[in-house]
Amino acid sequence: MENTEIYPTTAWSAGPGCHGGCGQKLFVQDGKLVRVEGDENNPWNQGRSCPRVLALKQYVYHPDRITKPLKRVGERGEGKFEPIGWDEAFDLCERRLKEIREKHGAESVIFAQGTGRDIGGPLSFLAYSFGSPNLCQLGLSGQSCYTPRLGAMKAVMGDFAVVDCSQFLEQRYNDPQWVRPEVIITWGQDPTSGCPDAFYGHWIVDCMRMGTKIIAVDPRNTWTTGRAVHHLQNRPGTDGALALGMLNVIIEEGIYDKQFVTQWVEGFDRLKERVKQYPLERVSAITEVPANEIVAAARLFANAKQAAIHWGVPIDMSPDGTAVAHAIICLWAITGNIDIPGGQVIARPSHGVSSYPYTTEELVELYGAELIDRLSKKRIGADTYPMVKNFRAWAQPDMAIEQIHSGKPYPIKAAWIQTANILGGQAARAKFHYEALKKLDFVVVVDLFHNPTTMALADIVLPAATFAEKDSIRAWWAPLAGIKKRIQVGECKSDWEINFELAKRFNPQGMQQWNTPEDLFDDRLKTSGMTFQQLVDQGSWKMPPDGPSKPYRRHERGLLRPDKRPGFNTASGKIEVYCETYKQWGLDPLPFYTEPPQSEVSTPALFKKYPLVMITGARSQLYFQSEHRMIPWLREKMPDPIVEIHPQTAAKYGIGDGEWVYIENDMGRVKRKAAITRKVKPTHIHTMHGWWLPELDGKEPSLFGVWDYQINKIIPGPQCSKSGFGGGQYKTTLCTLSKIAASGASHG
Hints:
Elements: E1 4-11, E2 22-29, E3 32-38, H1 51-54, H2 56-60, E4 70-72, E5 81-83, H3 86-104, E6 109-113, H4 120-130, E7 135-136, H5 147-157, E8 161-163, E9 183-187, H6 201-209, E10 213-217, E11 230-232, H7 239-252, H8 258-264, E12 265-266, H9 268-275, H10 280-287, H11 291-303, E13 307-311, H12 321-334, E14 344-346, H13 360-367, H14 369-376, H15 386-390, H16 397-406, E15 414-418, H17 430-437, E16 442-447, H18 452-457, E17 460-463, E18 472-474, E19 480-483, H19 495-506, H20 517-524, H21 532-537, E20 541-542, E21 575-576, H22 580-584, H23 604-609, E22 612-616, H24 632-637, E23 642-645, H25 647-653, E24 660-665, E25 668-676, E26 684-687, H26 706-709, E27 733-739
Helix pairs in contact: 3-19, 4-19, 5-12, 7-10, 7-11, 7-12, 13-14, 16-17
């Protein structure tokens, strides 16, 4: 194409909506984006792209896109906004938030993020510049998206780990160091459609083509389960019991890695005693998985030369998410599958660069111990939950929304909501969140499109940029990647530009060292030896060099510990399956199982009234969370929110394929279109979260139909785990079905 320039970059939201960080090529003609293709030179995705990236042009230039700052001129919910300039928008935000800080303290402002866009860096930067300790994923009960797993990994083994599909190696499958996993357990995720948190689903497919055997743990039937050697179709919420049962088999049969356990595992004898409480008969009864299948899967995993586990958010959303993750980490540990080729590869930020603070430790490095210690004294949940205080310095979201309602121990007066459609996306008890957030004096939303949250709550709406319109860095494990602005749409600004400007206004003294966001990027990139521009110029990505951020066997070479001694980054230098850190925090130092708060076991009377278990949250390649419902190519492929129902169940309720139904319980009812399928058991139904319909009226009371279609409206809470992280009931809510009469079945 004549006059077309091709730019390599990194796709990190907004646009595709994900955390994957895939390499892409932007085709730009006369300042306009004309096409997007996967970058075949980027080892991360090797030229592959998802439908959301391929539809980026429709996303960028959509007629409903917000391209100017907006100020509410009517009542909240009326949908009346007027465009204003950036100077006025910044002045309004600065004045109102400073007034609230002066009167009520910085802690009275919540900074809320979702899971899309490279938002962790910009939002934490703004929150701490303002002086608020209350950064959180507001609405996400128990922080039930990856945080419980991160906390467990940090406490038990001192690092984070993912399945080794060669993604930390530039030559990928051709690297002589790499060995494919003999066995991979896909636990609670279908990787071909799941959200790629530093992971790309095709990698597992590639491994399968090379001979890797799959064990799939999933209540549903999926593409992956259909190709698995063993499909452990467990009852929702029982993942912890299943992991403990597998541990029992492996330990009782003596098929664990005795050398690795002796040298690198702490507390094995205590773990051995704990798993005796989970004999096969008990575990089979709890999980509904036949005992012989549990045994066969455990033997296959333990006897493999190298094996790994890829896990999804059902781990976090189990009743005690951190305890479930702990049990699965024990499976890695006792089989010696950590920090080896084809096992669980330890995932550290490439080149030691981090822009997204996972832990309190990293926050101290970024902002200093004095500030973080001071803020922790007022952080919501820090006095109640040990992981909120000691692991991830985010406010506990269930307590935060309760505090907005109650005003105790101090009032919450404002919210800065960035990349988070709280009402239409993540919030359990969505109506409860709506009622609370309506009480706030001032709400700013930073987003790209109007959605139920902007319409219901926003006083100011600031237009954000896609990855094609912004500068940023991606420092989420590997590779270290640059994102370079190549086009401009309207007056949209990147999250970094918006937050940097306001951070300067809130804390001018602390911002003196940087004049622009690029200065800050250069500062964060110092350990890499590159500037931001140098990173971009050499192809926008760089794999980790030899050292702490590159595999393998770093525990043997003294590359994981600050003291340079061999071992893992824990107090003992070993993987602590009996976790002393948990013990110090007042948590059970060994893994355990807790029954879901709603089930035939824990709430038999409720189960009699609502005899179906609703599973929510499964991902689609077409949509990310609550995004993309307005994009033509994507909506054409999935126009309606569906609910998967087994044929026996459909017959019982008199429901035909394609008919509209209500899913209902004591909290209300939500509309869905029936898809009759054997993907689910007769006792389960499955539906996606995050549905609202942009074509419907955005004003109150409709708010794009959110109260008719948002499944989280009928998900209860809070039932978070003892740690403060995990346990949201997104996978185990009890419900029933009823057919909608023809007159009420349309989108109206």
